[in-house]
Amino acid sequence: MAFAQEQAISDICILVENIEATVAFYTEKLGFKLRRRAEGFADFSGVGLTLAAWELDHLNTHTGVSNARGPQGIHKTCIAVELKSPDLVDQYFKELHDKGVTFVKPPEDYLWNARCAYFSDPDGTVWELYAWLKGGPGDYHQIHDE
User: Fold this and answer.
1) Superfamily name with CATH number, domain 71-146
2) What CATH number labels 1-69?
């Protein structure tokens, strides 16, 4: 059985400290639509998949999954959004920046042949907006046919 080849990822769930701050950020700043809301949990509809948020302590109480926190500024997740053009990276940077989203720095072109911009949500989850520059992925090689 090839699990990853047979089952699509339907939801991405980020673990958060404060569900209220998370709901406000994702709906007011990024424009996600709140789909479901329960104590310590929310999920949002967007294009392509469901983004969910679950408070660490609520998850721990109900499932036994650890609620240990990492040091501030230590990142283990980056949610990437591929855009159709480098101009869209700039456009969304401006739109989100105007809504109060704090970016690491303005968009720039990187050595992997992509224009990218990076920001974090209230819990430090890193987001990347990117678009390939002319010529597509830089020094990446196709491993298999998709």
Assistant:
1) 2,3-Dihydroxybiphenyl 1,2-Dioxygenase, domain 1 (3.10.180.10)
2) 3.10.180.10
* Cα distances (Å, whole numbers) of residue 48 to 1, 54, 85, 104, 107: 25, 20, 19, 26, 24
Would you say residue 141 has pLDDT above 60? Answer: no
Residue 139 is predicted with a pLDDT of 62
The whole-angstrom separation of Cα 83 and Cα 108 is: 14
Cβ neighbors of 115 (< 8 A, separation 6 or more) are 86, 89, 90, 107, 108, 109, 130, 131, 133
Say if residue 55's pLDDT is above 60. Answer: yes
C-alpha distance from residue 43 to each of 19, 109, 132, 140 (Å): 10, 33, 29, 34
pTM of the model: 0.81
